[in-house]
Amino acid sequence: MDVKESIERIQQYIDERHGGNIYAAAKAIGINKQTLWNWIKEKRKNPRAESLNRVMEKISELTGEKAQPRVFNVPIVGVSGAGIPDSEVYTDDEVEYVTVPHDMYCEGCFAVRVEGDSMEPTIARGAICGILPTHSFSEGGIFLVTIPYLGQVLKRFALKNGIPTLKSDNHRYDDIIIEEEYRTAELIRGRVIWVLHKM
């Protein structure tokens, strides 16, 4: 169950058990009234995973239903280029979280917000990409890579005549051949394992 489905289930619980009264439901669940109001009425799309899990567990307890799978917070550690590379675009400062369902979560994963259009249509500007840390590549996969003269960018990895090459999905961008001195384990920061696009 993802965040949207969880919020819909909470709304259903409020309607069925409390006649639509958010304040009565908040009291029964044991959550701050304003928090529940924000989730339901303000359509806050990214509640904290711990809070959402606690509410879903309490609803399951109150209704006698089977507990739903948990959601998890993945840290968005910065912004990554997907266009003209820019060493100033990426930061390791943890700025916010994205809440994802259990089937998108893996231990140690993190996320980056995408700036640029070089990976369109696969990854749109503003998308959030989940990254699984790794220093190895598979041809055709999309990776967060670090090259001193380019910075950190999301690109598709390919071997072109045996030479490691970064490719864009947007045909307007040229391939980037990785210079030999930068072909190290530190080149690859991680592999893209999921993409969340803005609606």
- The number of helical segments is 4
SSE order, one letter for each helix or strand: HHHHEEEEEEEEE
Annotated CATH topology of the largest domain: Umud Fragment, subunit A
**Binned strand content:** 25-35%
Largest sheet: 9 strands, mixed
Q: Using only CA atoms, what is the Rg?
A: 21 Å
Number of DSSP strands? 9
Fraction of helical residues: 10-25%
CATH architecture of the largest domain: Ribbon
- Taken from the alpha-carbon principal axes, the silhouette is elongated
Query: What is the count of structural domains?
Result: 2
User: Mean pLDDT across all residues, rounded?
Assistant: 83
At the first level of CATH, the class of the largest domain is Mainly Beta
Q: In which order are the strands of the major sheet placed?
A: 2-1-3-4-9-5-6-7-8
Based on helices, strands and strand pairing, what is the structural class? alpha+beta
Fourth CATH level, the homologous superfamily of the largest domain: Umud Fragment, subunit A
Low confidence ranges: 84-94
Distance between termini?
A: 19 Å
